[in-house]
Amino acid sequence: MSVQPGWYVDPADTETRRYWDGEGWLGAPIPVDATPPDGPPPPEPPPAPATPAASTTPASAPPASAPPASAPPAPGWPPQQGPPQGYGPPPGHGPGWGPHAGPPGWGPQGAPPGWAPPAGPPGWAPPAGHPGWPGRPPEPRPHGLRLAGYGRRFVARLIDFGLVLALNVVVNGWFVWRWAQEWAPYWQEVFRRAARGDTSADGLPMPGEQAGSLLVAILLIATALWLAYEVPTMASGGQTIGKRVMRIRAVPLAADQPLGFRRALSRWSTLGLPTLLWYCVGLGLVLQLVDALSPLFDHPLRQALHDKRAQTVVVEVPHRTESAPSNDRNQPPGDTP
């Protein structure tokens, strides 16, 4: 394997460049930063014969020494740099071993200074079995915080549900009572016939037209109460009362900061607005159940559907350890130990 003819850095003197014709070096070296000619260097003129006068001088200057013969570049060694001192094949390799040759100017392709592989979104981690992760990868910690567990999130949602239900009893109770009165004759007759073993539905008293209007009003009030309870507190601190009790909060994926009203509203609407669809044979309840169970199947950030829409994640709130401030005046004078 031979190196193509061309101008290369002299391995014996890396500050000079010489022409390699494929078998040996030609011509005198030139500075490494000089622009080499397109082809081989012009032939050097033969040295002038010594004159008799020069031979009669008592002390003649020594002839100029030719540039030291340098070894040819190692076959296949990348141009623009010479092989290091003592370069040779590793033990166990036969003659002719060496890196593959390339065209002039070729060299191993390196990354630009400061380059690094692109990073994923905050909290991202390679999936299990990813090359470089033996076994299961570590759990992501968005903004340095631990992800909230499913148990904490479920208990926090139950607390919030109980508080919203209590608000509905106070504000929505009269409408619910009127709606129940509209349906009372129907259910009383159904139970009376069931006690007699009669399964026919003929002649059952149907609720009045007000029943449908009352149900719409109940759902609108319930949705509005849930909106007023959750969105403002989530916008300001990422926590409802239930989340405060369970020491968890929602934060944006982009940065550890408050959600803001727009993001909090987007997050709540995915879970809260289907309440209006309870009117459609419980369709809204099914959608809310799917949303509530979705964190169980999301990895690795355990995001519910409303979290994915708002680009949020639920994390644990760390305990704050408060240390007493030091007071130098309470210490006796003397050398510091």
From TrEMBL:
Record-annotated membrane-spanning stretches: 154-177, 211-229, 271-290
Location(s), subcellular: Cell membrane
Highest taxon, organism lineage: Bacteria
Taxon lineage: Bacteria, Bacillati, Actinomycetota, Actinomycetes, Micromonosporales
Composition bias type Pro residues, residue spans: 37-50, 60-93, 101-137
Source organism: Micromonospora ureilytica
Presence of keyword Zinc: no
Residues in RDD domain copies: 148-310
PANTHER family hit by this protein: MEMBRANE PROTEIN (PTHR36115:SF4), PROLINE-RICH ANTIGEN HOMOLOG-RELATED (PTHR36115)
Region feature Disordered, mapped onto this chain: 19-140, 315-337
Membrane topology category: Multi-pass membrane protein
InterPro entries: Pra-immunoreactive, RDD
Keywords of the record: Cell membrane, Membrane, Transmembrane, Transmembrane helix
Entry-linked Pfam families: RDD
Protein name from the UniProt record: RDD family membrane protein YckC
